[in-house]
Amino acid sequence: MKKEDFIRKGTLLLIKNDVETLTQLGTRMESPTSLMLLPYICLCCNEALNYMEYNLIAEYLTSSPISYTEVRNKLKLFSNRYGKSIKQIKLVDSRQDNEFKAKLRFKWMENWKIHYNLGIYSTPQGHVVGNTQYIAFLLQNPLFNLNEDSNTLYEFGFFLGSVLQRISQDLNFLQLDSKINMNEVLMDWHYKDFHTDKKFNLFLEMEDGKELTLFLLHLLSTVNFVGYELPRFVSNENPWLLRIQYITAHYVNESLNRIKNMDLPHKALISEEVKDNSLLNSTFRSCMFHYGFYNKGECSIKDEYLHEELFFGLIESCFEGKSYEEYQKLLVRKIFSLSKTMETLLPLPVHCFKPLSGK
């Protein structure tokens, strides 16, 4: 088989695996943070549609104002300009505040700030794995209101499910075993509600300290969702998990890079963490974010490393011969290092969080 044909078949196998994995996660992952899967689902849909050159017929199109390409781009977190990121965070915080104020029984109570506009979820061990404002950030769109336009969210979810189903059906000729943890995940998540203007800002002496706190919270939620939450449901042997681990490590590291020169507590720790980027590679990033094993028109898999195992020699080609297992162990270590750094920067009162079950 020619190298090009081999790589195309391998790419289709990975697409099939990712689609089946996300489909099963969507139906089996009973977690208060499951909506944090949205950008990963959008990534898969967008990149698979592009690679397979789909031209969606009308029945698959959606009238929802939510763009799956925009949600996919939120995976890049805050790796662009810091000022732009702060503006986005301010907008989400303001809109969430207005939406929850509107639920108060009496309008004259709105300025009392007795309502909450942020919920944070953690594991019982105190690792933050999600928050409501990050989910609102993923769906941020000036054309609709999250609380009022439930049909918009339904249409968006239906569209994503239809795309996954269509791709899965078209790849039925490929056989594989998507390694999902089929066992019931027994865990009582913990939570705490906050008002972001009351006892939340951890950088009171700084301009936009509240927004910086939210900036770090979103990074922490993202890295811990991938480090502590997803592995409960997905086997380490599943190549989709490594793809997501890499994308998360890359963009959390890049986002931290945007604040490394700010006068923050633990500034040296941030610089040290950002410099630890030996596992981050632009060619590999391109192949994790897009399907096809090509970067700038050139195949990223070297002939001497081409094989039939996971990722077909890409990891060996990008990281001096390291195997899948070796590289993933190092990548997981980087994920936990980022998590530890973020938890040091953001000492949240996780000991005060309550069990979601109320027990």
**Structural classification:** mainly alpha
How many β-strand runs? 6
Regions with little confidence, pLDDT below 50 for 5+ residues: none
Shape: globular
Strand order of the largest sheet: 2-1-3-6
Distance between the termini: 59 Å
| Major beta sheet summary | 4 strands, antiparallel
What letter string, H or E per element, gives the SSE order? Answer: HHHHEEHHEHHHHEEHHE
What's the gyration radius in Å?
21 Å
What would the average pLDDT be, to the nearest integer? 87
Share in β-strands: 5-15%
Helix count equals 12
Report helical residue fraction.
40-55%
Would you mind describing this structure in some detail?
- It is a single chain.
- The model has no long low-confidence stretch (mean pLDDT 87).
- The protein has 12 helices and 6 strands.
- It is 50% helix and 6% strand.
- The chain has a 4-stranded antiparallel β-sheet. It has a two-stranded antiparallel sheet with strand order 4-5.
- Strand 1 (118-122) and strand 2 form a beta hairpin.
- The chain is mostly helical and 359 residues long.
Can I get a quick summary?
The protein is mainly alpha-helical.
Index terms:
single chain; 359 residues; mainly alpha; 4-stranded antiparallel β-sheet; two-stranded antiparallel ribbon; 12 helices; 6% strand
Write the layout of secondary structure elements.
Layout: H1 3-28, H2 38-51, H3 68-73, H4 82-101, E1 118-122, E2 128-131, H5 132-138, H6 150-170, E3 190-194, H7 209-229, H8 239-257, H9 267-275, H10 282-289, E4 294-295, E5 298-299, H11 314-318, H12 324-345, E6 354-355
Antiparallel strand pairs: 1-2, 1-3, 3-6, 4-5
